[in-house]
Amino acid sequence: MYLFLLCALCLLSVVLIFSSLSPRRQHVCPLCGGSRLTLEEKALDVVIERGMNDGHEVVFQRASEQAPDTIPGDVIVALRTQPHARFTRHGADLHMTQRIPLRDALLGHASSFAHMDGHRVTVSTSEAVTQPDAVKVLKGEGMPHHESASDKGDLHVKFTVDFPKSLTAKQQEAIRQLFPEDK
Q: Selecting from 3.40.50.300, 2.60.260.20, 3.60.15.10, 3.40.50.150, what CATH number does the domain 88-178 have?
């Protein structure tokens, strides 16, 4: 004769066997093995909000392994950002380097590129001569602030000026005429 009862430890069903030929025997619960624990997979959904910084921690309180007579710990997910090909991030500000030829540094230029979200950003230097390593700040073109995604940081564009490797005699003479020596 078979009788189905609940395991007193994990409250999952087990089989108790009674027989007229042998004394009463209790089998160990096949699910918990007498430990009162069963393995269970649990999916945690991590919401990455706009503007979260590298190292930001998302905490799931009391979601770690559980054991009888203990309070489960927290699961902490720390964000790690991958490097971007064009931008580096400092808080909500983005930094990038843009190479321009000497002609554009002297005469000004305008160029555009696709930002991370796909919108076009135009960088122009037509108002003055661009010095090597000069930085132009574009307000509101950085990363959104966490907790206030409508506010954005700034984009800092550092210019690297490419000088020609050599000049012909004719080019050198033209430069001497444009920029006479100060006396």
A: 2.60.260.20
